[in-house]
Each structure stands twice: as C-alpha cells, then as structure tokens.
Amino acid sequence: MNLSQQGTWMMLTATLSGLFMFAVYFVGAPWLSSNQFGLFYTLIMIINLSMVLAPGLQIGFAHQAAVCSSREQQRELAADTAGILLILTVLWLLGVVGAFFAQDWILDRLKLDDPGAFWITLLAVLPALWAPVFAGILQGKQLFGWLGWAILSNGLGRFAAMTLVFLLLGFHLEWLMSGALVGMCCSLVLAAAPCRWLWTEGFAALRIGAWFWRASRFAMGPGIVQFMLSVDMFFARARLSEEESGVYGAAGMVGRGIVMLVGPIAAVMFPRLVRSDSGDSGAKLIFRIMLATALVILTVIASFTALYWLMPVVPDWIAALSFLPSGTAEWYANREENLLQIASLIPWFLGAMGLLALANVYLNHLVARREFGKVCCLLIVPLAYCTGLLRYGHSTGSIMLGIAIANATLLAGCCLFSYRVANRESDKA
What we know:
The chain has 17 helices and no strands. The protein is mostly helical.
C-alpha cells in the first residue's frame, strides 16, 4: 500500500469499527428497560476506560518496531513485549483481586443484582489491555492490512457476537457482555497472529522502566480524551435513579458516538502533523482538520435537533406506513416518553462531547510535536472534572453541565498551547 491507500484503509477500518461498536447498543436497546440499558452501557464503559493506556502502548511499540532491523533489536523488542504483557497481566490480576474484595460496594454503586456480567466484563479487560501492544508492532512494521482487520474485528466481532447471542438466547446481560469479550478476543488474535516472528531470536534483557517513561508521555494526550469520554457514566449510574441513568446512558451513547465518528480524522492526519516542519503549514493543517471535524459535529447536532422536533408526529407516520409490523405503533407508544426524554438530551450531549472531539485535534498536534510538558499541564482538567462531579454531580443537568465546562476548558487550553507551538515554529522557519 502507498501512503494514500494506507491512510484511506486505516480511516475506513477505524470508522467502520466505531460504527459497529455504536451499533452494538441498538442490538437489544428496543427490548431493554431504561435500567437494563443503563447498566449494559456502564459495563461497556468499564472496558473503554481500561483502554486509557492503549494509545501510549501502541505508539511506543510502533516506534520501537519501526526501527527494529537487526537480530539484537528484535530480541530487545521481544523482551519488552513479553515484559509489558506480564506487567499488564499483573495489574489486571491486582484489579480483579481488588474487585473481589470490593464486590459488594461496586455492585451496590452500579445497582447490579447479578455479579456474573460484571466478572465477564473484567475478563474482557485483559484482551483490551493486550491488543494495543501487538497493534503497535503491526503499525511499526507497516502491516496495515493485518492492523486494519484487527481494528475492524473489534467492532465487527463485538457486534456480530452480541447479535447472535441476542437472537439465540434472548436478552441476558451476561450473554451480551460475553459478546463484548468475543469481540476483544477476535481483535487480539488478529493482531497477535502476524507477530509470531517476534519470538524466533530469543529475548534480551528487560528495560521496562525506560520503555514506560517513553510510552507514558505519548499516552497522556489520548488518555485524557479516553478518560473524559467515559468516566461520567459511572457517576451517573451511582448518583441517578435506575430509570434516569438509563435515559442518560442512551443520550450519552449518541454523544460519545460523535467522538468515535470524527476521531479517525485526527488519527489519520497524525503522521502529517509529525512531519510538518513549518509552523505556518502546521497551523493551516490543524485548522483544516478542526474545520472538517466541526462541520461533521454541527451536521449531526442539527440532524438530531430536527429529529427531536419531529418526534411528536412519529405516531402519525407509523400509522400511515402499512408495511411496518403491526406491533410497531404499540412498541413506540409504550416507550414514547423515554424516547422523548432521550431525544431532548441528545443535542446538548452532542454539543458537550463535540468540544472534546475538537480538543482531541489540538491534543494530537501537541503530542505529534512532542510538547509533553504542555500536555502534562492539561492533566489538571480531568482532575478538576472528577472533583466537580464528586461534589456537584447529583442530577442529569449538573453532570452534563460539568461535561460541557470541562470539555470547553480542555479545548481552550489545547487550542492556546497548540497555536503557541505553531507560532513559535513559524518564527523559527
């Protein structure tokens, strides 16, 4: 593949994977109560939150694999890979042990009666931790075909497994989370299979400390976005009623979907930001990425706002469409109040999460230009965000206001730092 084909393939697979992950929520949504959907969505967010380290791991291994050309470098890469996998496994086991002793407290906060789904979710966390390691090696070795299929299988495998389970066994939270586990395992297998060559030359001495120091700097920026994208659902589940958390989760699903939709735009443009030597050209490139992202966000917000205003006439449309199943009108009537509540929140959620999607563009620029000190300064935003939710996040409105304020603050900080870097580089050029 040439560079253009590689970029197109990676954007296509990343977008399709995100769309399939998004479609997962529609597998059982029409048949779930608000409480069941809120719980299902919260468990999925546990997997997403566990992937805070994923970008740093993938970038770190991609860089190391890219320069791996000798036998000794291959042995070092094999040792670092084995060491990181071992450390991630130990961290996961410590988390499982901690969850075992805190099980009653966790289940009480999640309002979960059956612990089976929670433990299956924890099982899915391990392949979610491992997969970025092998994905980084594939990226560094430019095996973009395998990498694209590994990315796509995460979303497609999860969607297919959950759909099959739902059709064969009906709704049960344990089975649906088993589908998520299958999807993560499919992605891991497809990423790890082409990396068998890695172990053929043995292992060098471990250098875990130096490796983690290098990777952690790259992980900070994407980690901030992943954290702020997921953490609010846990506050909503703990603080709101079961019915309210379900409505909040459904609206949040669409809001988070906009970040998943436009995320590949910034990801694919990342190499161009790395190679951009002129501050002026870098600023123009950032502006074009930001403009494309903003246009997508505004289009989606306008579409859902129009949908909300049209929802009161939906029953008349249903009655006029003779080809729909006979129970469609009854199904809508039974859920009309919840659907209207969800629809009323979606435009606001899209706006709040749209700010995070725009901040992600500028964060990618800062990481690409290795401005890790400035990224580190931005860590105060998620810290203040959690503090604010702990103190004031007792209702749907206050949580959503907190999201908007935190994301707007993050966007302002990222924008300021990013353009300072671009202007400084422009002055040097």
